[in-house]
């Protein structure tokens, strides 16, 4: 047989305690402190970073200017080096070591196996290359390659 328990005594409205009342009291007591923001940061940022991950930041831009002599000695243009460095990791691009020239041309190599799927990719790529302008970026070329692979996947399915 269950014995009914009496309800808890009602709390007078003036003494009602909220769950976060101690935290609110501490914030109100220290809000005018000169180190208040720093204390909040030290207290809550580790927990928020653990929950949401690190903050998203813009890429670091190097403010140092290169000397003109350095640009003349360089065999690979800065624009090309930067574009290859920013490429999506799915693209693997290598400099052709047999073609080192100072006339401004740069040879990049990418190897493919000759299986039926990649032959289909090659056919798609060849047709798409004809649609590119005479001068195009590495990114445009690799995006064309990715589209050719996507088209070959659709035709294989």
From TrEMBL:
Domain ARC105/Med15 mediator subunit central span(s) in chain numbering: 3-49
Query: Transmembrane ranges?
Result: none
Question: Per its UniProt record, what InterPro entries does this chain match?
Answer: Med15_C (IPR048386), Med15_central (IPR048385)
Superkingdom of the organism of origin: Eukaryota
Q: Which parts of the sequence belong to the ARC105/Med15 mediator subunit C-terminal domain?
A: 76-113, 114-151
Designated name of the protein: Mediator of RNA polymerase II transcription subunit 15-like isoform X2
Q: What is the source species?
A: Panthera pardus (Leopard)
What is the phylogenetic placement of the source species in the record? Eukaryota, Metazoa, Chordata, Craniata, Vertebrata
């Amino acid at each position: 047989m269950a014995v009914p328990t009496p309800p808890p005594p009602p709390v007078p409205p003036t003494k009602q305690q909220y769950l976060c009342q101690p935290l609110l009291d501490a914030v109100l007591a220290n809000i005018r402190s000169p180190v208040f923001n720093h204390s909040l940061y030290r207290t809550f940022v580790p927990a928020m970073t653990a929950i949401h991950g690190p903050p998203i930041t813009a890429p670091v831009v190097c403010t140092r200017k290169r000397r003109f002599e350095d640009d003349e000695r360089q065999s690979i243009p800065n624009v090309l080096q930067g574009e290859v460095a920013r490429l999506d990791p799915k693209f693997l691009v290598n400099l052709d070591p047999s073609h080192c020239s100072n006339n401004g041309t740069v040879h990049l190599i990418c190897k493919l196996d000759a299986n039926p799927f990649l032959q289909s990719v090659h056919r798609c790529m060849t047709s798409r290359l004809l649609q590119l302008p005479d001068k195009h970026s590495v990114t445009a070329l690799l995006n064309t390659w990715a589209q050719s692979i996507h088209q070959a996947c659709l035709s294989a399915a």
